[in-house]
């Protein structure tokens, strides 16, 4: 019955080990006997998600630089909810976002949109449509070729090709923010006792 349930809800049941490991390390396993494990895991995601993004937000506030951007949220969720997934390794996240950044900016340059403003402000034009479509298509293809699939990178490339983030220094900060988030993932997942990689898993699959 447990196997049938896992097949019906493969993602939902994917990573109880993170929460269990942290509770064991903090000597709070009694919570699993007092409360439904789903609720305990939800509480973990609530606290950890807040702390993770808040730390980067504080860094952004102090430095006055954009260390927080929308596609960082899905990356954080992968890191802490399903860390055994190949797409949740530091390598896939860092390489995947780097590909997304490069493809997004290249599409802006190709269609002369580096200084055109965000699509949400100036509207969508045929060159913008082509830039967005091309950036997303190349991001997906190159991630597959590089064996660095990381779905949130698809959002990163669209943020750039749609003009939300275009300044080269800010694009570099996106990659720095991903690297900082990866360091948090390494620390928390290893604290939970998981065999979480420092860079990539031994398997080349992605």
UniProtKB/TrEMBL annotation:
The keyword Membrane applies. The keyword Metal-binding does not apply. It comes from the Bacteria. Keywords: Membrane, Transmembrane, Transmembrane helix. The chain crosses the membrane at residues 42-62, 94-117, 129-150, 170-192. PANTHER family: TRANSMEMBRANE PROTEIN DDB_G0269096-RELATED. Residues 41-197 form the HPP transmembrane region domain. This is HPP transmembrane region domain-containing protein. InterPro entries: HPP (IPR007065), TM_HPP (IPR058581). Pfam families: TM_HPP.
